[in-house]
Amino acid sequence: MTLEAVPPSLRGELSRWLIEVQPGVYVGNTTALVRDLLWDKVVQYARTGRCTQLYRAHNEQGFAIRLHGDPRRTLVTLDGFQLVAVRNARHAELQGEYDPPEDDDKL
């Protein structure tokens, strides 16, 4: 699971169940019930932050993805595969629909 721009209390809560291997990157082996309960808690308390969860699944990819809080990224299922679609920031900016964050200026 990855967390960006979330309250410190949420990060502390996750560290009870998962190991924070790098800032905002959590890894662990939990039951499906605990995984789902942690995701519900993350979504509830993330506020304006962004969250991603990847976990083992019985499918062709071997994993499933959940996203929350990043309007530029959406999950798309194509032929049974989950893909992450990234909104074309340049196109949206030209249409007046997108105000890039300061970090995007460095790209």
UniProtKB/TrEMBL annotation:
Entries under CDD domains matching the protein: Cas2_I-E (cd09755)
InterPro entries, alphabetically?
Answer: CRISPR-assoc_prot_Cas2_sub
Stored Gene3D superfamilies: 3.30.70.240
UniProt-listed NCBIfam families: cas_CT1978
Specify the protein name: Type I-E CRISPR-associated endoribonuclease Cas2
